[in-house]
Amino acid sequence: MSTLQIGLAIIGGLVLAGVVAYNAWVTRKSAPRTVRERGEVRDDVAGEEPPPYLSADPADREIERIEPVLDDGPAPSVGSTDAPAPVATAPVSITPIMSQPPEKRPGLDALIDTIAPLQLEHEVSGDALLAALPGTRRVGSKPFAVEGQSETTGEWESPRAGQRYRALQAGVQLANRSGPLNDIEFSEFVVKAQAFADAVGASPDFPDMRAEVARARELDAFASGHDAQLGFTLRARRTAWSPGYVAQHASRLGFVAGALPGRMVLSGNQSGQAPILSLVFDSQAAMAEDPEQSALREIALSLEVTHVPRGEQPFLRMRQTATALAEAMEGIVTDDGGQPLSNETMDRIGADLESLYDALDSRDLSAGSPQARRLFS
């Protein structure tokens, strides 16, 4: 073999090696970032505990999605696209949000319920009341409830076995995200409350239907004009993320696994309070056979404004969280249309929210209160 042939063979080999190396580099660059990248290894031993975006034990890790309503019956989903559209306060996305179970179910309130006293001739046991309760604790799309005045504490509460009650009241919520109480629903409320009263020997005193329906419409008009759900989208600038990579960075900021795959929540400071923020990504990627090979190009960060107390400074924390995640994962914060959100836009959103909080406070429906959580559900 001549010197020329040997030289050409060597050059050909070097070119082939270069092509192979380049293809390997491209493949590596296009693979999603994982928790093991750049020395970021999980503290727990593989196989001992599921990743933080998947729940391990429902009793320990899972945060249930429970509506803040008065009964145990089925309820309309929060933030569904069929609900009355909230007033837009900024070019941000709207996403459903998951809430934690409250310690104590909020009671009937004349501010957002129509209430009918049920007069008793004598005290009645909680066991008798529980046996007489209707099977469905809803009137149309509104929650229906019965309360008794405790003989021992004098407070109104849901009937409990072993207790005795000297007064009763039945109520139905005036409005929620499905709309105001209408004539048909009020009539159904009367029928259901009357049947319960007959079963326990009580005499109901129902309010005027026209007045209550008009009150329901006015409350619904206010709620429709002051509902707000904010959402930011974090998009990868270059390399995609794996679910574990996202969960690792979110966990460092205080997020924990939610009830559904691909959902994490940032809990509030008070027990029973709704989560301050929710972080959501593709659930199919989270449930993939090998989640670390799933590629995420975007994740959503959302805030249910009316469900979180103003004192938690939820928007400030949302803004700081979005910025921190974007910097740590080389992403960019945008609206749902892909437009980057500038500091000026963020400032306008914050100012709009302060006005919203003031309006809610003026109606005794402060954000995060039991009344607000029920009304905006």
Number of domains: 2
Strand content: 15-25%
Low-confidence stretches: 38-50, 53-104
Counting helices, strands and paired strands, the structural category is alpha+beta
Could you estimate the helical fraction of the residues in percent? 25-40%
Radius of gyration: 28 Å
Going by CATH, the homologous superfamily of the largest domain would be ZipA, C-terminal FtsZ-binding domain
CATH fold type of the largest domain = Cell Division Protein Zipa, Chain: A
The best one-word shape is: elongated
* Second-tier CATH architecture of the largest domain: 2-Layer Sandwich
Number of strands: 15
Descriptive overview:
The protein has 377 residues and is of the alpha+beta class. The chain folds into 2 domains: 32-105 and 226-377, Cell Division Protein Zipa, Chain: A (2-Layer Sandwich); 113-220, 2-Layer Sandwich (Cell Division Protein Zipa, Chain: A), CATH 3.30.1400. Helices cover 33% and strands 18% of the residues. The strands form 3 sheets. Strands 1, 2, 3, 4, 5, 6 and 9 form a 7-stranded antiparallel sheet that branches. A 6-stranded antiparallel sheet has the order 11-12-13-14-10-15, covered by helices on one side. The model is unreliable at 38-50 and 53-104 (pLDDT under 50). Its main location: membrane. Keywords: Cell cycle, Cell division, Cell inner membrane, Cell membrane, Membrane, Transmembrane, Transmembrane helix. InterPro entries: ZipA_FtsZ-bd_C, ZipA_FtsZ-bd_C_sf.
